[in-house]
Design goal:
Belongs to the ABC transporter superfamily. The chain is built from five helices and eight strands. The chain has 193 residues and is of the alpha/beta class. It has a single domain, classed as Rossmann fold. The longest helix has 18 residues. It starts with a strand and ends with a strand. The mean pLDDT is 96. Bound molecules: adenosine-5'-triphosphate.
């Protein structure tokens, strides 16, 4: 089943001399995994933003879009005045027990009532990852989303993502500059530029 299809799309930011990318066609199918790689500034995040619907391509068409996309970026962007748990229940009010179980799996249970703006970057990244998983995405986008984690915690996060992927069958699109830190090292690669 195709979840996302882009047909010869291009993206040209106003005031920039040329497009970030052009004539790019891409399909993402259920259960598939993709890794976007390439030097800094070549358009990986821009493509993710297009997939997420946060950016509209300036040429081409997107005939197919998923209903639910989960996203986690390097910058966790939690609601700062809410606690870790409230950030989750705000998104998924009926899934508090599930959220709590995932916080426990990522060693965040003791901090569930801490306000988001008191969390370290790696702690906030874990909450942002759980938030993205809780919406039961059809596509999960991870843009350097786990860069603040030590190796053991990163492995717990990877195990959680893979377990949820086995259960829910979402497609995964990830950007990671560190080849040792790819959730799916065997993912289909898209190289930029
Ligand atoms: N909102 C924007 N307005 C104008 N230019 C932008 C905007 N967002 C990104 N760009 C430009 O588009 C190009 C691609 O940026 P993008 O963030 O997609 O690259 P990237 O490959 O993800 O980089 P990195 O690996 O450093 O995160 C860069 O030259 C950047 O300056």
């Amino acid at each position: 089943m195709t979840l996302f299809a882009a047909d010869t799309i291009g993206l040209h930011y106003p005031g920039r001399p040329g497009p970030v990318f052009h004539d790019l066609s891409l399909t993402i199918r259920k259960g598939e995994s993709l890794g976007l790689s390439g030097p800094s500034g070549t358009g990986k995040t821009s493509l993710m933003r297009v997939i997420a619907g946060l950016e509209r391509p300036t040429s081409g068409r997107i005939p197919i879009r998923p209903r639910r996309i989960g996203m986690a970026f390097a910058e966790p962007r939690l609601l700062p005045r809410l606690s870790a748990m409230e950030n989750l229940s705000f998104i998924a009010p009926k899934a508090r027990a599930e959220g709590r179980a995932m916080l426990t799996a990522l060693k965040m249970a003791a901090l569930q009532d801490a306000s988001a703006d008191s969390l370290s970057k790696g702690q906030a990244q874990r909450v942002a990852l759980i938030r993205a998983l809780l919406i039961r995405p059809e596509i999960l986008l991870l843009d350097e989303a786990l860069g603040g984690l030590d190796m053991a915690t990163w492995q717990s996060a990877r195990d959680l993502i893979l377990a949820r992927r086995d259960r829910d069958g979402f497609a995964l699109v990830e950007i990671s500059h560190d080849p040792a830190r790819r959730i799916m090292p065997e993912a289909r690669a898209i190289s930029f530029p």
